[in-house]
């Protein structure tokens, strides 16, 4: 099977390949930035359901991923920016050079330079490869790739998928940065860095206050949750991560109010 398209296409095709005849080979040809740096690499396949994001799926790696940067020229600025959210995530969890590159160049400059784009794609894929090679089925280490995704997936579902995945993850990254700062794990300067770099890529960093009860309910279904306890991947510094497992609802709401519109 050959899957040509964005992340949703490669996710569902990979899932179909994993179930047909108990698993057949498949090749991913991602045509979006998010697909190239995230969805098509790492072996996760799946589909969305009314209950949540990617709760139905399997681990089934493609035998090849063919990423041609020429596809990116067909994307709108919005879709390119949405893909940059996953690139920025890789910068915060493991490779600060990514953040430097994006901070030093405008969106137009990033889009207009194959050399810059290739560097960002290569670095992001390397970050994911390094993590996945140590924890393919997400027993613990791979959870770092979900930085910003706990709230992000909830926001994406709550928006009725009107927000792009990367846009929702951008909001989620600012949220966990604020959460880490509230715990004294990172400085306010790192929170500001999150806000500034995401805004420079035209990504949203806030969500509606009235959504909180719905978001909390959706987050309870997150795969990192343990029983009734939510767990978040947070930073202790740029390039350093840990987990928060002892959060409570009042604390989560107080932090959420910092990113409300």
UniProtKB/TrEMBL annotation:
Entry protein name: Unannotated protein
Keyword annotations: Amino-acid biosynthesis, Aromatic amino acid biosynthesis, Lyase, NAD
CDD domains in UniProt: DHQS (cd08195)
3-dehydroquinate synthase N-terminal domain: residues covered: 1-81
One BP term from GO: aromatic amino acid family biosynthetic process
Entries under InterPro entries matching the protein: Dehydroquinate_synthase (IPR050071), DHQS/DOIS_N (IPR030960), DHQS_C (IPR056179)
GO molecular function: 3-dehydroquinate synthase activity
Cofactors: NAD(+)
Species this chain originates from: freshwater metagenome
Residue ranges of domain 3-dehydroquinate synthase C-terminal in the record: 83-225
